[in-house]
Amino acid sequence: MYAAHQVADHWVQTQHQADHKGRPGWPGRIACLAHVTTYTATGLLALVVVAVVTGLHLRPVPLAVGLAVSAVSHYIADRRTPLKRIADLLGSGRFHALGAPRPGHDDNPSLGTGAYALDQSWHIGFLFAAALIIA
């Protein structure tokens, strides 16, 4: 699931989805839903490949619940605002802002931001929960 996450989040996701999934309103929700749909499909495909290659028996209900946990948690994080609010609530707001462009400056955002680190650790934590449910 971690390998599928990396592929889906960085290769399968379109530039449009990446640019718009955190925007307010329906355009952001739709872009995020499109990303989560392809993300979940990538995860399912990876699990099917593992099952075929290894003979692993995937049970439909745990598979569906695990993929739903992964999808819903991914949507929450990728809408941006909920994750920032959680970081603020837990006292990690300054870390979340680390490396972000400064207001009024033409800073270059990068993957080396606190927001990205918190986003990815959130995803990995929920991937672990999803994998336990599926197993």
Write a brief structural summary:
The protein has 135 residues and is an all-alpha fold. The chain has helices spanning 2-12, 15-20, 25-54, 60-78, 81-89, 93-97, 114-134.
3D architecture notes:
This protein has 135 residues and is an all-alpha fold. The protein has 7 helices and no strands. It has helices spanning 2-12, 15-20, 25-54, 60-78, 81-89, 93-97, 114-134. Helix 3 runs antiparallel to helix 4 (60-78). The longest helix has 30 residues, at 25-54. The N and C termini lie close together (12 Å). The mean pLDDT is 94.
Provide key terms for this protein.
single chain, 135 residues, 75% helix, elongated
Question: What is the secondary structure topology, with strand pairs?
Answer:
Elements: H1 2-12, H2 15-20, H3 25-54, H4 60-78, H5 81-89, H6 93-97, H7 114-134
Helix pairs in contact: 1-3, 3-4, 4-7
